[in-house]
Design goal:
alpha/beta; five-stranded parallel beta sheet; two-stranded antiparallel ribbon
Length: 280
């Protein structure tokens, strides 16, 4: 691998050059992300045949990502797979305890959150949340902690905030319509039901705000606005640190935007809690 290329996940490398990918290279990238074992253990001819392109095109794709050739890219994919796509049980068996690498991964993930909301980006993300008639929160399994923080916080600030649960997609989705906003959160391995529900929301005219990990995520093509953050692995599972952080920042910004309306709503909720003796 070229020494100029930083140690990054395959997703990061593809995302960094996504705007410069040709249509053929994008197909290669999509194949690599959808079926990484093909690239990790197959030949150049195997991948070229799957994508419907030539062997030189595969090599040019590798150099576009900063590698000296296909062999270097293949080794990087293998190293990436051993960590990102291994099952939790395999991660447990290979876990040697907290490490400097884990700490760096968490720090990079938190940094990616602040990168995602720097400047006026956070205003663009929360505008549909503030203005939506109803707000739907939809999440994959690995991001449930963030979606819970988001739904809980937003419901304190404004009415009409609802979580979409997989067991009731049909009933819930029938109520979604133009003027609503959906916040959809998902990361690898992307859940089929989340993508299908996001597509149904978009087709219903709902404004979709996607939070994901890559411009090649299946959510991006369905989104009106989106942001990209990193999700590190801690032990056998993907960490919720970065998505919870982002969702808390979004809630704080919505509170700033709604200001008096949000404060009045919280006062009414607090009064009801006092009246019903909710807390000891």
């Amino acid at each position: 691998m070229n020494s100029a290329v930083p140690v990054s996940s395959t997703l990061d490398l593809i995302a960094a050059v996504s705007a410069d990918l040709t249509p053929t290279q994008r197909r290669i990238a999509e194949a690599a992300l959808a079926e990484p074992t093909l690239l990790a253990f197959g030949t150049v001819s195997d991948l070229a045949g799957r994508v419907g392109t030539s062997r030189p095109s595969i090599v040019r794709f590798a150099t576009k990502l900063g590698f000296e050739g296909y062999t270097d890219l293949q080794q990087h994919i293998r190293d990436d797979l051993s960590h990102r796509l291994s099952r939790p049980s395999a991660r447990i068996r290979s876990d040697k305890g907290p490490s400097t690498a884990t700490r760096l991964a968490i720090n990079e993930a938190i940094s990616s959150v602040f990168d995602a909301v720097e400047g006026n980006r956070i205003e663009a993300l929360v505008a549909p949340i503030v203005n939506g008639r109803k707000v739907w929160v939809l999440s994959g399994e690995t991001s449930l902690a963030g979606s819970h923080a988001l739904r809980s916080g937003l419901s304190m600030l404004r009415p009409g905030v609802r979580s979409l649960e997989e067991h009731s997609f049909g009933t819930e989705l029938s109520d979604a319509t133009t003027g609503d906003t959906a916040i959809v959160i998902d990361f690898p391995r992307y859940r089929r039901q989340v993508t299908m529900a996001a597509r149904a929301l978009a087709e219903a005219g709902v404004t979709v705000v996607a939070i994901t990990d890559s411009p090649l995520s299946p959510l991006v093509e369905l989104a009106d606005t989106w942001c990209q953050i990193k999700v590190p692995a801690v032990g056998p599972f993907d960490s919720s640190v970065s998505i919870v952080t982002l969702c808390e920042l979004l809630v704080a910004q919505v509170a700033r935007e709604l200001h008096d309306a949000a404060a009045d709503r919280i006062d009414r909720i607090e009064a009801l809690w006092d009246k019903t003796e909710t807390f000891l």
